[in-house]
Amino acid sequence: MLRHPCLAIAVLLSIAGGMLAPALADDAADQAELAKKTLNPVANLISLPLQFNYDRGIGPTDDGKKYVVNIQPVIPISIGPDWNVISRTILPLVDQDDILPDGEADASGIGDTTQSFFFSPKKPTAQGWIWGAGPVLLLPTASDDDLGGEKWGLGPTAVALKQEHGFTYGILANHIWSVAGDSDRSDISATFLQPFFSYTTKTFTSFTINTESTYDWEDDQWSVPVNFLVSQILKIGPQPVSLQAGPRYWAESPDTGPEGWGFRFTFTLLFPK
Asked: What's residue 183's pLDDT?
């Protein structure tokens, strides 16, 4: 079923883009600004991304598969004439199979939630940089022991990016330490690094490459998926949306982590002011 998902999604995006092009042409300037905001993690834009991820080659026998739908609401809150607080939540819905030969790790349900708050100036710097910084929290919301770490976590997070001539580039990072939780479970000390580079065309199509690398300081291990993504701004009636799809390649992972190629598809509802 997932042998050629990227080709299928690319065809659907092309067809949808052709069908909806007249609607977009009526407000091209607004759509161009919206396309830029979807690539900015601290944009003043309410959005609701629903992100589907598929990975395989998991577990000691490399037979495991994992399907994750991340519900990721983004809500900017004004705290004065010059600053916003951007709330970014990641709530994963997980289904994993064949992780262990005896099936003990097979599970479906909610994973642990990551909650970030970025304090961000409303205007870029004189050099054009957009930035934000604040706390990140790990909440032990997993519905099954195999889907979470049963630990509360806390740490700093920050993002910096620049947008010019159709290009968006920057980095988002955080570090989480476990501060409470089940003493029988492993402590958490993990650094997350997400450098990203995108180009947006005049038809509001964006081509993105990024990594979502995590270094586990407790086990001295890297996890490095590289994502190759194409996204398109469209309208469903009056409702602007973003569709994004593409493959991911695991350049590095723990011995029992994902291997080879995976896939991502994201449907995002956009609510511009």
From this structure: 93
pLDDT for 129-155, tens place per residue?
999 999 999 999 999 998 999 999 999
User: Which residues lie below 8 Å from residue 154, measured CB to CB, with a gap of 6+?
Assistant: 135, 136, 137, 138, 176, 177, 179
pLDDT, greater one: 157 or 33: 157
Show Cβ contacts of residue 159 under 8 Å, excluding neighbours closer than 6 positions: 41, 42, 118, 131, 132, 133, 170, 171, 172, 173
Give yes or no for residue 3 having a pLDDT over 60: no
Residues 139 and 181: their CA atoms lie apart, in Å, by 10
Tell me 255's DSSP state: T
Structure tokens at 145: 């022991």
Tokens of 185: 């479970």
How many CA atoms does the CB half-sphere of 193 hold within 13 Å?
A: 10
CA angle, residues 214, 90, 141, in degrees to nearest 5: 95
Query: How much is the pLDDT for 105?
Result: 78
Structure tokens at 202: 């005049």
Sign of CA dihedral 73, 74, 80, 81: negative
Paired tokens of 4? 């050629």
Q: Which amino acid is at 270?
A: L
Q: Given pLDDT bands bounded at 50, 70 and 90, which one contains residue 31?
A: confident
Q: Show Cβ contacts of residue 17 under 8 Å, excluding neighbours closer than 6 positions.
A: 203, 205, 232, 234
Domains defined along the chain, listed by start: 5-271 (2.40.160.40)
